[in-house]
Amino acid sequence: MKVTNLECDLSEVIISSPIGNYKILACPQGLHQVGQTDDVDNNNFLALGQAIVQFVEGSKTDNPHLLTAFAWMTEYFSNNRDISDKVQVCPQVIGESEESRSFRQKVWMSLKLKVGLGETVSYAQLAALAGSAGASRAVGSAMANNPIGLIIPCHRVVKSDGSYGNYAKSTKNDVKTWLLTHEQSHADKL
Predict the structure, then answer these.
(1) Which DSSP symbol is given to 148?
(2) Extended strands (E) in 38-98
(3) Which of 86-100, 121-135, 139-153 has the lowest average pLDDT?
(4) Three-point CA angle 36, 149, 33, nearest 5°
(5) How many angstroms separate the CA atoms of 37 and 56, rounded?
(6) Which of 64, 65, 99, 181 is least surrounded by Cβ atoms within 10 Å, i.e. has the fewest?
(7) DSSP3 helix / strand / coil % (the chain, rounded to 5)
(8) What pTM was estimated for this model as a whole?
(9) What pLDDT, in 10s, does the model give residues 110-140?
């Protein structure tokens, strides 16, 4: 995953999860990136996973946004609760205001705010939620470039026929299936 705006002073941690390690970058204003490390793929994500969410040895946790992301991941993986309203994304990543957001940023925020834990939405439905009905291909591009995976839950976006489609350029389709199953198996408890 590529961070396109490096004007901020970034801190980094690696957090282990039941489905492999996640790299998280944050500045004093919020998160810049949440994504599985490059070594995670369809074939090894469960073998790389840890039973509990924990910081990988050597990770520095001096940024409060990294601590909040850790707390969010702990809740998500252990209790299957979405506390994403507690997570701050840097305005340089997500846009300063609703009026100034790019199409991609509007799609990301629509997904984060309007598609809940255990739910799925099609690319076309998400385009409509973002105020651009008919822009489903552009939504696909926004999902492919989502820097804040899990918290901006691009795994919840599916094809119009309900099939899961490709996730992380098809390298993590099984991860997407695992995430959706994890969420949906607990949806009745919410």
Answers:
(1) B
(2) 54-55
(3) 86-100
(4) 75
(5) 12
(6) 99
(7) 40, 15, 45
(8) 0.87
(9) 999 999 988 999 999 999 999 999 999 999 9
The verdict on whether 8 is a catalytic residue reads no
Tokens 């609703």 sit on residue: 98
Are 139 and 106 in contact, with CB atoms under 8 Å apart? no
Which residue in the list 8, 27, 90, 154 is annotated as catalytic?
154
Q: For residue 139, what are the CA distances in angstroms to 23, 102, 121, 126, 175? A: 24, 12, 11, 7, 20
Name the token pair of 85.
């309203």
Tokens of 189: 């408890």
Find all residues with CB under 8 Å of 163, minimum gap 6, and list them.
none
Residue pair 111/120 in contact (Cβ under 8 Å)? The answer is no
Give the strand pairing for 22-27 and 121-122: unpaired
Q: Which of 11, 4, 63, 37 minimizes the C-alpha distance to 149?
A: 37
